[in-house]
Each structure stands twice: as structure tokens, then as C-alpha cells.
Write a structure and sequence with these properties.
The structure holds two protein chains of two kinds. Chain A is α/β, with parallel strands linked by helices. Chain A has twelve helices and ten strands. Chain B is mainly alpha-helical. Chain B contains 22 helices and no strands. In chain B, helix 14 crosses helix 21. The radius of gyration of chain B is 23 Å and the shape is globular. Classes of the chains: A alpha/beta, B mainly alpha. At the A-B interface, helix 1, helix 2, strand 2, helix 3 and helix 4 of A face helix 10, helix 11, helix 14, helix 16 and helix 17 of B.
Chain lengths: 340, 496
Amino acid sequence: MKDKRVSRPVAAILTMILGATLLAGCSNDSAPEASELTIYSGRSETFIAPFLAEFEAESGIKLNVRYGDSAELAAQILEEGSNSPADLFLSQDAGALGAVAEAGLLADLSAEVMASVPARFASADSKWVGVTGRARVFAYSPERVRQLPTSYMDMSNPQYKGRFGIAPTNSSFQAFVTALRLATGEGATEEWLRSLMANQPKYYEKNSMIVEAIENGEIDLGLVNHYYIFEVAKALGREISVKDGFFADGDLGNMINVSGAGILSSSKKSDSATKLIEYLLRASTQEKFVAETKEYALLEGFAGPAGLPALNEIAAPSVDLNALRDLKATQELLIKVGLL
Amino acid sequence: MLLSLASIPFLYLLLRVREISRAELLAILLRPKTIEIIFNTFALAIVVATLAVLIGTLFASLIFSSNFRSRGILLALSSLPLAIPSYVFTYCWIAIWPNFRGFWAAALVLTFSTMPYILLAAFAALRRIDKVQVDVARSLGCNRLRVFTRVILPQIRNSIAASTLLVVLYVFSDFGAVSLLGVDTFTRAIQNLYRASFDRQSAALLGLILVFFAAILIFAEERMQRRTINARSTARIKDEIALITKRAPKAIAFAAIIAYSLLALAVPAYVLITRMVGNFQGIDFTSLATATFNTVLVATLGATIAILFALPLAWTIISTRSGFALATEKVVLITHALPGVVLGLALVAFSSRITWLYQSVALLAFAYALLFLAKGVGATRTSIERVPNSLKEVATTLGVSPWETMRRVTVPLAAPGIGLGFLLILLTAMKELPATLMLRPTGFDTLAIEIWSAASINRFNEAAPYALLLILIAAIPTFILSRPDRQFQEEGGRHQ
């Protein structure tokens, strides 16, 4: 009697295994077609999928997109090495692309692609190219912050004591500290970090949490990327009172990072992959990025998103994005001062 | 073969650590941060395990001994948090209380998610206690408290210890709660090393230190288990032991259990339902259905593979006690403490050149099997061990071959217990995220993936329906596991 009760689920399970094996078999058979591209995307599906769908419709190239965290995808590509099934890597930041490039896993991009964006937004050795721009800003509450900071140095000013937030584990903050290290030296950076910590910041895991905390009145300002105020407003489904502010011209606090793309050297479909990069850098696509994902277009002559100043008006400091890949020394420093 | 498969993650870690120079190795080991991580991890594990053991044992005893007519519901209610992934728990708490952060917040969330392991194990152990012993003790003049400490506790101690080990290993490997709440444990530190500096070597070193500590704990737990009291009658005891019969304490116990369950369940339920209702027209039912199907498919496959591995392993351990099999069991337990990312990357490194296997449903299912095999081996081993030898001996005297004996006597009798081990793995696999992200076929979305995808850009409204559905589906195995009339063979109780 017991036998029967056991055998039914067992039979069901065996059927499922068989089914799944067949299923897995099917999906594998159709993989190696010339008109398909496999993309590892560190950019989130919600933001990038509409663009990819438009490219599919226009080019007839089918895209298999694997979404993940930029850094984890980079780590995955590093483990896969030359066996990577990916043709193209879309990353949230320059650092992840730099790490893959450093391991020799990215192919050279064409001269036309490299020429389409200003050199400061692309890899010096033609391994990756920026697609959209992301500005570091301070987000703040206009009601509660009377005197705006004019430099990142002001964050250690007593008037902001205990009123601001940072996200030290977040890669965008670490990229900024890396830029500081390269521009001002280890000693000055360490000194600033210590004075920052002495000014009692609140620590958050993500940039969006900082913006939410400002909106909730928990803190009054914080160091974030420019688009988080739009993201949080969208997530909450209402207007929020938090605004983006830029520091004085040329201040390192106004650093611009990019999301970007690189073609894997193991890919046999670099022609199709190049087509996709060209699509992403086309003026009409860039315009859509500004309107929809509220990022900066990297081509010359575009206005900033949603009333923010244009890229060439920000007067950002010159930062070598290629150097951002090595965050090791930055992490050592953050560990040393106790932020990590 | 199983040993070599189970060793893949450790080989991987060794391989990466060997790339570090000796000086650098020492520098990483001795940096204050490493010490802090070890301290945090242990402090969290100790606090969570203590709370889970106290609450779990208390609730199990209360539910068991109070003769509640509604004990089935009580048991199900207090086990239900098992169906909620720790990252969903955390998101929900942050949603209503933005200041929810830090060590104690993480301890709270992890206690909620792990307490059911202790509760169910303790309850199952209580059911096996011979009522006669209680009566004897009472007639010898023991009061109720003494009966509990002298008669009952020694008999359920081993089961509780075994599941406490699982709780501690779970805390070691959890990422969702600690990362969102900002507590630097091993898993979070490892993930941060990958995230910010693509530093696979240092991350691997931290992974190995974690393995080392897990191994120590596993051996310590085994030591404890040796001091076993083996006082068990073979008769099935159906009577309940009614220790609490007065109405007032009964009401207090009832209220305490209900209050706890509501505290654990109300926040996620409230947040998820309001978020989903607020965004009802935005729900994509096709993707919801696909993700559900994928989740169930791959988790079922993973649990099946795990049990298929667990059966021969448990069988070998019991029949031959070979050192090889015992070593495999330890390796499997340590794997349980590994962060999903580490196992994910290890499998990427070893399988990416095998094109037909890499990023297939089969590989993902295999990853689940490896990650959660510990739960299967425990359940399988206990339930096979509990088949009375006399029955097997009778079969042998009747001229039945050993194979036939296994097929016709042992497996049918052990099946319910093995089935529950299966459910436990199924339930855990459904909630898994980090390894799923790396190993799934490209474009293969599970409920956990969809939740991550929406939550990573703060679209909690969009994540809510997936999270609710995941909880509802995971509640089915949880419910079966918590049915009091089930002869639940506790997942971790390996030596009875």
C-alpha cells in the first residue's frame, strides 16, 4: 500500500527530469546561429530591454541577454576566460569593463566606434566605449539645506555634521575615491576620508537609499549619482522634493563615470556586436537614453536630462576612466580608515 | 564520484588562493578587517542560533504538550517564515522602517528565517519520546519542569544540536539580509571583493577561512552527538504528553505563538500585498507564469538530484561506515556554509568549457543539489537508520536478497522521511539567488531572478507579485513539512 503512495511522486519527478532534459536539449540546438548575439548585461532589464528590442526589430539579429550585476558578470567572464559564450558585455560602469580588458578578454573596437564619443569617455587602447554618462552629484533637500556645498571637501564642514549620507561599499563611491587618490594623492585622500568620517555621516548600502533617506527627512544631503532622484521618484510613484546639486566648476565631486560596452575577444560575431554598439551610439538612441533613463548622452551637443545642465556645462574634472578598474588600492585605503 | 563532485568548490578556492603570494596572504589574514569579519560572523551566528534554539524549542514544547486542538495550524503558522527568502524579509522591513539596519536587524531577520528548522526538528523529536517514561518520572515524584529537563530534553537534544548546526551554516552563507542591512560577515565581504575590485583571490581566501570554521563546527557537533542516550522503544507512540493542561498557561502559550507568527508574517504580507495592489495593472501575468514554472522545474530537479546523491551516500555510511563516505558527508555539510557566489563561480570555472552543460538547466539543478545536499543526506540517513534491524533480519531469514530487502523493506519504510528531506531542499532551492544568477541558461527567469531584477532598481512594486507568488509556492512544501501527523524525520538529526 505504501509502495503506491511513493511511486506516484517518483514517476512524476522522473517525467519532469525527462521533460527538462529535452527542454535543455532544444534550447541548446538553436544556439549557434549567425544571426544571434549573446549579451551579458550589467545594466538592468527595465532600462535597457526596450533599446535592445528596437535593435532586434531593426537588424533582425536575435539577442540572448543575460542580466546580472556588472561586477559579478565581470567576475564570471574572468572565470570563463576564452570559453565565454558572451559576445558583448554591457556594463554599468567603466571599472568592470576595465577589469575584463586588463585580463585580455576584450577585442579592439573599430576606429569609427571609438571616434564617435569624446576620448575621455572611452578606453585609451580601444577596448571599450562609453554609452551613457553618469554624473556624481550631491542630492539634497532644498528646504533643509540653506548653504550648498561648493566642493566635495565641504562635506567635512561642521555645518553638515551628522546630516549627510554616503554609500562606501557602493562601486560608484569607490570610483570617486579612486579618482581622488589619483588626483590628490593617497595622503590627502586619507585625510579627507578621516575628516569626512569625523563629521558623522550616515552609511547606506545603495545610492537610492540615500535619496530615500533625504526624502524621509532622515538626512539632508548625500553623495550619489545624478539619476537616483528620478529612479526613487519612479519607484515611489510620485514627485519627490530631493534635488541634484553640482559642486563648483572643475571640482572632483562632479566626476563623470560612464556605462559602456566591449566586445569579447572570444566572440566570433564581432560584426553583429559592432552593429549593436553603433545602434547604441546613434544620435536618436542617445536622445532616448536622455529622455527615458535620464542619463547623459555622450555624443556632443545634447542637453542634460530633465533640466540638469548639459555634460559640457558641468565643468567636470578630467578623470582617467581607464584607471578606475583598479579599485584594490582604494579598498585598502577604505579598509585602513575603517569605511569598509 | 560524489566526493570529487562535492569537492569542486574547495578545489576552486585552493586554486585561486594559490595565486596569492605568501606575504600578501599573511597581510590579508592579519588585517583588522578580517578579524572583524570573523567576529561579526560568529557573533551573528551565535545570537541567531541561541534565539532560534530558545524560541524553537519553547514553541515546539508548548505546541506539543499543550494538547491544542489547533496544533496543526500553530505549527504551520510558526513554520511559515521558512517560505520567505531572507532578502524579501529584509526589503519589507526596510520598506516600513527605513532605519531598520545593522547587526540586531540582521539577527532578527535571520532568527525569523531559521527558527522553523529548530521548531520542526524539536517537534519531531518530541513525538518519538515514549510516554511511559514521562509517566514513570511523574510517579517517581518529578515535577513538570524536572520531567522536561531530565527526561525530555536529553532525548531531543541531539536533534536540536543537529539542526542548530544547519542554522549556523545558513547564517554563514546568507547574503540577502546581511548585505541589505550592512553587517560585514564573510559572505558580504566576499561579495564586496568581487563587486568592487574583481579580486577573486582575496575573496577565495576569505572563502577558505569560512570553510575552515565550518569544518571545526561540524566536528564539534559530531563530538557532541557521541554522548547519545539511546532509550527508544520501537513501538509507535500515539499518545500526546500533556504537560500543560491548565487553561491560563495554555492561553498564554497560544497567544505567544500567535503573536510571534504575526510579527514575522504581518510585515512581509502587508508590504507585499499593498505594493502589489498599488500596481495591479502593471503585473505581467505571462512572465509570472513562466517564472513560476521555471522555479518549480529547476528546484524539483535539484531536489531530485540531491536525493539521488543522498541515497547511496547515506546507504554507504550506514552499511559500511567507510571513512570515505563519512568524509564525503562532511564535505557536503561544509558546502552548505559556502556563499552561493563561491559555488557559482567554482562551477563556472569548471564547466564553462563544456558547452552543452554550461548554463543549462541541468547545471543549475546540479548546483542546487550540491548547495543543499546537506539537508538531504541528514534526512535520508536518519530515516534509513530508523528502519528496525529486526525487520531486515526477518527478511533475510525468509531468504530475501539484500537488494530485495532494500527495495521492499527499507525504502518503503524510510520513504516518508526521505520525502520530507526532498521537500526541504525543494523549498530552499526555490529561494536561491546568487548561484541562480550565474548558472541559469541565458534568458531563463525564475521568481527569485525576477524579484532581484525589479528590486535592484528599487521597483519594489514590480517585485511584489513575484515575491508573493514565491512565498505562496514555497509555503506548500513548508505546510507539508509542518503537518504534525507527519512522521517528520528531522532533517539534521543524523545520529539517533
